[in-house]
Amino acid sequence: MLREDRQDQILHLLNTKGKVIASELCEELNVSEDTIRRDLRELSARGLIRRVHGGALPIAPSHTKYEEREHVLVEEKKLVAKKAASLIKNGQLILLDGSTTASHMVQYFPADLQCTVITNSPRIALSLSSFEKVDTIMIGGAIFKNSEVCTGSLAIEALSRFRPDICFLGIYCIHPDEGITDLDLEEAYMKQKMIEISSQVAGLVTTNKLDRLSEYMVTKTDSLTHLITELDPSCQRLSKYKTGSITVL
Question: Do you know which Pfam families this protein is assigned to (predicted)?
């Protein structure tokens, strides 16, 4: 098998399985371990895979500005947001992070919703001003310009005062074995705190974020109580996420 064909096959297996193991590739492609290591090294240098110990994972989506992400997978994000909004009950203390998917949730709130929403997103805070029975608490801090959210020690300290009933968390990357990761360290710290203080945590995940790994660890995947995607829960791709602690919607 030619090198180009072999590397195309590796990419196909990676996209199908969500992870490839070097030793298994040796057997499947009938080549030496040195050959597979060289293939993985070349694919990584081309930015097509992310190498991990013993194998590789798909690359994470690029970290673009908020205005650009607003126009990516819009219909899929709305499906996720609508399902997420259906979990909210009157009287709850809700925590919304500043993800583009979480921002879509507001349009699915009932007009007579009565609850308190905490958010570190100025955009979301302003969009809630039209709901007469929704009290909004804005978490301040240093503005992270790419995501238009407040982060940093001040924001984390403010969050420690609350115990939300449920947190809706936009996820940058998630993998059943490697956990939830983010491209920005400060946002990773914020998400850690949000998860820590919340009774329930619903991860909002479009499928381009599934089975991916980024630079900074947030937490283990089973820290979620809900995983919400645009896929049907019976989809085989989601089977790895169906643990005893996670409800897939």
Answer: DeoRC, HTH_DeoR
